[in-house]
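Recall the central idea of this unit: under ordinary conditions, the amino acid sequence of a chain determines the structure it adopts. In this exercise we apply that idea directly, starting from the sequence alone.
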Amino acid sequence: MTTTPSKLLETFPNPNPERDYTIRIHTPEFTCLCPKTGQPDFATIDIEYVPENACIELKSLKLYVWSFREEGAFHEAITNSILGDLVTACAPRFMRISAKFNVRGGIYTTVVVEHRADGWAPQQAVTLP
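Accordingly, the structure predicted from this sequence is:
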């Protein structure tokens, strides 16, 4: 295999740091292990962020997501861990992680966590007629 799972998140310079814009990443193949039973948990992870000086490089993100496959963690812990790692890697103005876990025992779990840089406020939404 030419690639292996990795916790290393790479970035590249934001090509337009002078403006706020949103990057949305949809990852429907997230897997980890239930810390109680060892059974696999499946989730869709949605990442939305407003970059500051750096953007997340997608291949490294793919390998990062893959690195959770053999880890046992509660949904809340893993979602917060992902946010912390991504914020550490790229220091965005804003970031939101939504982790939508598939049904287990008749229960769906969605965990949403956010980061907002000090002093950053979102632009007012424009409503067109």
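The domain at 19-116 is CATH 3.30.1130.10 (GTP Cyclohydrolase I, domain 2).
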